[in-house]
Each structure stands twice: as structure tokens, then as C-alpha cells.
Amino acid sequence: MNKEFFEALDQIAEEKGIPQESVTGAIEAALLSAYKKSYGSDQNVRVEIDRENETMNVYLRRDVVEEVENEDTEISLEEAQEIDPEYEIGDYIDFEIEPAEFGRIAAQSARQVTQQRFKEAERNMIYEDFSDKIGEVLTGKVQRIQRDTIYVNIGRAEGILKEKEQVPGEHFNVNDRIKVFILDVKRTTKGPQVFLSRTHKDLVRKLFEMEVPEIEEGLVEIKNIAREPGSRTKIAVYTADENIDPVGACVGARGGRVQAVVDELFNEKIDIITWSDDPYELITNVLSPANVEEVVVDEEEKMARVIVPDHQLSLAIGKSGQNVRLAARLCGWKIDIKSHSQSEEAEELEEEFEVEEVETEEVEAEEVENEEVEEASEEEESDDDDDDDDDDEKEEEADDED
After folding, report:
1. Which CATH class is domain 201-342?
2. How much is the pTM?
């Protein structure tokens, strides 16, 4: 086999990104298929490809027998000993076959097998490549839009952005360049399918990693993200380095870093807050931009009652409860918000309730005491009646004796 053949194999491997071992395996399978087309079986055929010496050989193995029943797989002892007198029954001989002997139909079959194997190897490479990229963000180009599904060119594969993974309000046209989150990769009969997302909260995480060097270097850590795609995102950041302001690092000079993320998310609002292990401080922070007057926590139930100024109540709750909802998801606590006035009213009601409860208890105690006194009086009267009866009985007995 000439040098040009192996150079062609190397070129195919490089162009398609296929390992050379896979290319070699495809050629071997093709030659075996070609032999099977010509001789009906490939069970006694082996292929040897030596890439180092750039040689390729096909061998037909024939068993040495006393009486030949199948000339394709057997050879008589007499013929074998003509080749080498030392052959005995039970040995085998490998005969080299020239691929050119396979014929036109066999050669066509070999081409089909080779193409199929190359395609399978390429699909496996794409699957493994994108499987390693699950959870990453890639830049792709919108290739086509079919019904509610957007197909994105992401290099060696076509990504699928389904409707449920699209952000409400975002609209794309063919050839638009967008950043997408690799959600999952699945094998199918048509090749690997790469599923994308624009709604996943980790899309925000990855965008910040791309824009903020301190996050990429591990100096600033993203503790958690709560997101309602297309509307608002809250992100909690932390650093152990006292010389670094984690929020300032994410915002950047004149807000340049966070603005780059906002632009990519089509003006989705982003609140960046400082993470704290202290629940009082954390809950105060996550309710930003509202100011908090007081936080009362129940660590056992992981619930927090928050009091805010009257004019901050709507800001703390947010439109349709969005701010407090995202805050609760971000910190992992249930949050009950009340305004200053509502809190005072609740306290007054509690005090009134306590007073009423005390008065009720006193009345009940007095009633119980009265009942006990009445019962005691009744018992005394009963005892007096019993004594009178006894006296009457004694007088009657005395009269009888007289």
C-alpha cells in the first residue's frame, strides 16, 4: 500500500476530527465487508494495517485437513506440505489476498462501509466533545427557525433551542449570533442532538465568569442565583479577601461588567448582593433595593419576619411579589414582610389579646372559686340536714320506749 493512501487517511482523520484508530478500524471493516461480498464469509479473514511502516495486508486463513470440504477455508495436507513439509493436520496457513481481487461489487460495498464507519466515528466524536461541554456557554449563529424551535449552529453540531428554554420577549432572526447554555446531549439515530437553553440560571453564572476575572480566578465566588428569565435576576457573591469588594468587582468600572451581561440578556435586571453566613445580614441584603428595619428569624423553621418602613413595603415585595420571591429563593429562607405600621398594629392586637386572655383567666379563676364555695356550702347544709334527721330519729325512738 503506497504512502499516498496513508496520507489520505491522515487527512480524513484531521478534517473530520476522528482519531486515527477509528479510521484504521473503518478500513479494516471495509476490507472484511468486501471479502464477504466476494466469498460469502469473513470468519477466516484478518486484516493487518501497520501505520508505522505504511503497509496493509489481507490474509485468508485455511485449515490443514485430510479431506477438503470447503476450498475457501480448508487446504489438504498434501497441498500444505508442498508449501512446507512440516505442516500437519490441524495447522493453518495464511494466504495473502490482494484487495484488487475483490471485484467491483465488493469495492462498492467497501466504500459504503468506510463511509458509514467514518460517519459513526464522527458522530461519536461530536457526542463526546459536547458531552464534555454540558454546563458551558458557547456562541452560536441562528441557522433556522422552525415553528417555535430555534436551531443554532455551534460548530460541529446543530444545537436545539426549544420554546420552553427561550426567554419570553427575546426574538431572533436567521444569522443572529447568540450565547447559549449547553443543557444536554443525547444520542439519536440521526446523530447526537445538543439541547440548548437561554433560561437556565447558570447562563448568568457563566456570563459573569466571562466578564469578571476575579470570579474566573476564584477570588470571588458566586454563592447562589435566583432568576426569572427575561425579567429579573438576583445573584449573591462572596469573597474571603478583605481587599476585594465582591459586588464592586462584578459591577465593574462605571458598571461596565454587569452591563455587558445585561446587554447579552436583553436588559434583564440584575441585583448583585453580598452573601453572608449571618441570616440577619443575609436576609437584609437579599431584599435589596429595599431598606430593612428589623429581622426576626426562626432558625428551626428557617423562617424570617421582616419589618420595613411603610414607604418601602411595595419595593420590598416587588411587582407581583417578585422581589421577595427571588430573595427567598436566593437565601433559602421563608420571608414574611410587614410594614412598620402593620407591625405596630399586630403588636397592639397581641397586647390586647394578652390582656383579654389574662382577664378571662381571672374571671375563670373567680368562677371556679365561687363554684368551690357553693359546693362547700351545699355540703355543709347537707351535713346539717343529716344531723337533724338523726336527732329526729333518736327522739322518735325515745317516745316509743316510753
Report:
1. alpha beta
2. 0.68
